[in-house]
């Protein structure tokens, strides 16, 4: 089995896992979040829904990511090539990286305000405000990424570069694929226009991680002092949600976000190299399902609710099986 076929199978496995696990998170968060969670449950549901959208965009676009010399390239072989549908789907996949980090940051800000500035939670994260905030922020990030990717759309110069530079590695025909390319250096000079998308992504990710680090450090340092007046149940819930957020950030940062960010940064060094980021793209397909598992496992209320739902389903299945079994006829009364 070649690498391309293996990556497609891995992507489909990741897609189905994401669909099942994140749908379970949506069901559990909607039906089993008590009043203590407040509007935070809508953020959990939004993050799970974004994971499903991310996996869907990934499985249909089947993106390939490369670093070639001073160029960052993301491409797909969707048919028809270079149609507006192919460009939009590929832009959607590329936008998910920024949207994911953005939603994680919103969750950290919510938890920080819930502990230290509860009035801000009531002001900015009411039920309707929370949903509105999610849609507007995600739409804004998607719009920014789409505008940046429009700058990186292919032209005759990029077609010639791609065909000549990848001839020995992949033998790609640029006319038969949809791709975005950011050529950081053009004819030996720094290309300010095409470097703009990558610079914005790097700055955006750095800014979000600064906010996450600040909120996380403040909660780790001062959370116990602030929660002394709360009930034991509230303290337990807050600690669970904080622990969940930390793991949701640390795992993908180590295994997904850091490698992905390095792919964005390497072209600025103008090295003579060819990097196929296929393994990173495969890991991206599993990220949403892993995130859903973290949520289901570390939030005890959700874990217990899921166990109860599974037991209820098994009991119903057992009862139906028993009722469907044919009953043995009673022996006729014998007269002696």
Automatic annotation (TrEMBL):
Record-linked InterPro entries: 7TM_GPCR_serpentine_rcpt_Str
Superkingdom classification of source: Eukaryota
Name the UniProt record assigns to this protein: Seven TM Receptor
Keywords, alphabetical: Membrane, Transmembrane, Transmembrane helix
UniProt KW Transmembrane helix keyword: yes
Transmembrane segments: 12-30, 42-60, 87-110, 131-152, 196-220, 241-266, 278-300
Native source organism of the sequence: Caenorhabditis angaria
């Amino acid at each position: 089995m070649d690498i391309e076929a293996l990556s497609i199978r891995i992507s489909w496995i990741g897609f189905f896992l994401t669909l099942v696990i994140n749908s379970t998170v949506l069901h559990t968060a909607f039906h089993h979040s008590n009043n203590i969670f407040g509007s935070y449950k809508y953020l959990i549901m939004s993050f799970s829904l974004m994971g499903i959208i991310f996996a869907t965009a990934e499985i249909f676009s089947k993106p390939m990511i490369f670093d070639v010399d001073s160029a960052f390239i993301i491409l797909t072989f969707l048919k028809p090539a270079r149609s507006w549908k192919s460009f939009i789907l590929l832009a959607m996949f590329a936008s998910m990286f920024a949207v994911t980090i953005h939603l994680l940051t919103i969750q950290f800000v919510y938890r920080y305000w819930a502990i230290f500035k509860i009035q801000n939670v009531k002001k900015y994260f009411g039920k309707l405000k929370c949903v509105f905030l999610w849609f507007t922020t995600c739409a804004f990030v998607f719009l920014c990424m789409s505008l940046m990717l429009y700058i990186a759309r292919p032209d005759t110069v990029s077609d010639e570069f791609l065909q000549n530079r990848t001839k020995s590695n992949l033998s790609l025909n640029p006319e038969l694929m949809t791709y975005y390319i950011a050529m950081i250096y053009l004819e030996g000079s720094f290309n300010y226009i095409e470097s703009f998308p990558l610079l914005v992504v790097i700055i955006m990710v750095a800014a979000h991680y600064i906010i996450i680090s600040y909120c996380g450090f403040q909660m780790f340092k001062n959370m116990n002092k602030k929660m002394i007046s709360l009930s034991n149940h509230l303290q337990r819930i807050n600690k669970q949600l904080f622990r969940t957020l930390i793991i949701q950030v640390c795992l993908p940062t180590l295994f997904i976000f850091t490698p992905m960010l390095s792919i964005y940064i390497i072209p600025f060094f103008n090295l003579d190299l060819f990097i196929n980021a296929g393994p990173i793209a495969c890991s991206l397909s599993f990220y949403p399902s892993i995130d859903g598992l973290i949520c289901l496992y570390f939030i005890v209320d959700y874990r217990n609710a899921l166990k109860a739902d599974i037991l209820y389903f098994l009991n119903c299945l057992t009862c139906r099986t028993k009722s469907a079994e044919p009953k043995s006829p009673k022996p006729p009364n014998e007269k002696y």
